[in-house]
Design goal:
single chain; Thrombin, subunit H; Pdz3 Domain; 6-stranded antiparallel barrel; 26 strands; about 25% helix; elongated
């Protein structure tokens, strides 16, 4: 009896000790936990998994799956599997995400998810697998709409939020199928707004939401949601080598684009045809009253701008009376105008404003891609045009200067590393004179050697002469 009482006493003491170390659960934490659980339960039915099959072009990378494709899409290095690349004609199989837009079966995802797909299959919340077809795509925003036959099913529909009301620090929930794991959710915050990324593809409209909610390969096209379960963005990108650094297209962009994709299959945008940059470094030299506008660095031949008489060194200040404060303003304003429409472009030229009537064209995706195809000057990170007498006078170059004008230098390129700048005139390549663009290309092809330094003689806008050393990339090809 004595031993029994002692055993009970010890047991009670041990139990009391355990209770003493237990921490009470905060009602606030319980409420937050319950809220997150409720949100995921509500969101799960509207999030879909997207499986695609596509045949790569000849010389493509075979049956690398969409994970590696998305890596390459965002310029991320990828280690090839042992034994080299597979046969280039095998089907690729990719996995990504999307969300149900309406009860008719329209689903929003990324353009790069379905681009080139020969088969698309959508996995629904109830385990059903259904085929889908592409309804419309917009490479400029990387948005796409696909459609499934709902078969009479009452589809759940995502509730769309308002991305213009977002604030840094708000909760964010990324949903989708990372690495093919369907129905996955990650939680974090909005860590920045209005991000423009240096993406290698032709995504002209960015202004991305940055979040530390985990976005992984396979999340592309899935929704980024707020604490109310509303879609505030569409997951699009990650930064290789950085933890919890992902980006999403603002939902308000999709609100403007998706109805047009459903109705017309594409978005038609106005096209002016100028290469522009910020005004900051040119404002004083051009006697501008402020640093607002878009500086015209190049006017390609045959564009609406060239036909209307817009010139290099103009600063575009207004379009149809609407102020243009930056190059992005110009792109957005012109793109919102229907092709074929007459517009008035107000430029700053020779110290005064000048109105120029322009008939806008349609933005030529194919032409842009051809212009941006790799060639000698692009390999080095240069955008060049022939030097005209008028431009030489504006730059106050020494009399008789002949060469090619640098109108743009790509960031982190061999040209930038060498110190070449917009406004420089290249007069020699490999110790041989060049007087025009054709000569530049010919001499570059003859003198440039992959992996070797190349000398270039330049004349600066102030007339100063110099020699720069451009390191030619090891994998460079000059045609």
């Amino acid at each position: 009896m004595k031993h029994s009482v002692m055993a009970v006493a010890v047991a009670v003491a041990v139990l009391a000790g355990s209770v003493a170390y237990a921490q009470p659960v905060s009602p606030v934490l319980q409420e937050i936990e319950q809220a997150f659980s409720s949100i995921t339960n509500a969101l799960r039915p509207v999030v879909v998994n997207i499986d695609t099959k596509m045949t790569p072009q000849e010389g493509g990378e075979g049956n690398m799956n969409q994970f590696e494709d998305i890596f390459r899409f965002f310029g991320i290095p990828f280690q090839a599997p042992e034994g080299g690349m597979p046969h280039p004609r095998r089907l690729r199989v990719g996995q990504a995400s999307g969300f149900i837009y309406d009860k008719q079966g329209h689903i929003v995802t990324n353009n790069h998810v379905v681009e080139g797909a020969t088969e698309i299959e959508v996995g629904l919340w109830n385990g059903q697998k259904v085929p889908a077809k592409v309804v419309g795509t917009d490479p400029d925003t990387d948005l796409a709409v696909i459609k499934i036959d709902n078969g009479g099913t009452d589809l759940p529909v995502a509730e769309l939020g308002d991305s213009s009301q977002l604030r840094v620090g708000q909760y964010a929930i990324a949903a989708g199928s990372p690495r093919g794991f369907e129905g996955s959710f990650s939680f974090g915050h909005i860590s920045a707004l209005g991000r423009d990324l240096n993406l290698p593809e032709n995504i002209r409209f960015q202004n991305f939401i940055q979040t530390d909610a985990a976005i992984n390969l396979g999340n592309s096209g899935g929704p980024l949601c707020n604490i109310a379960g509303e879609v505030i963005g569409i997951n699009i990108a990650i930064v290789y080598g950085a933890n919890s650094l992902g980006f999403a297209i603002p939902i308000n962009t999709a609100k403007n684009i998706v109805p047009t994709l459903i109705a017309e299959g594409k978005v038609v945008r106005g096209y002016l045809g100028v290469r522009v940059t910020t005004v900051d470094q040119y404002a004083e030299a051009l006697n501008l009253p402020d640093k607002n506008g878009a500086f015209v660095a190049e006017v390609p031949t045959g564009t609406p701008a060239e036909k209307a008489g817009i010139q290099t060194y103009d600063v575009i200040r207004q379009v149809n009376g609407q102020p243009i404060n930056s190059p992005q303003d110009l792109i957005q304003t012109v793109s919102a105008i229907r092709p074929g429409t007459a517009a008035t472009v107000t430029v700053w030229r020779d110290g005064q404003l000048k109105d120029i009537p322009v008939t806008l064209g349609e933005f030529p995706h194919e032409a842009q891609q051809a212009a941006e195809a790799p060639n000698g000057q692009e390999t080095l990170g240069l955008r060049l045009q022939n030097l005209t007498d008028e431009t030489a006078q504006r730059l106050q170059l020494p009399s008789g200067t002949q060469g090619v004008l640098v109108v743009g230098v790509n960031p982190n390129s061999p040209a930038e590393d060498a110190g070449l700048m917009q406004g420089d005139v290249i007069v020699e390549v490999g110790q041989r004179k060049v007087t025009n663009l054709d000569e530049f290309k010919s001499v570059l092809k003859e003198r440039a050697q992959p992996g070797r330094p190349l000398l270039m003689g330049v004349v600066r806008p102030n007339g100063e002469r110099g020699i720069v050393v451009v390191q030619v990339p090891q994998d460079a090809s000059f045609k």
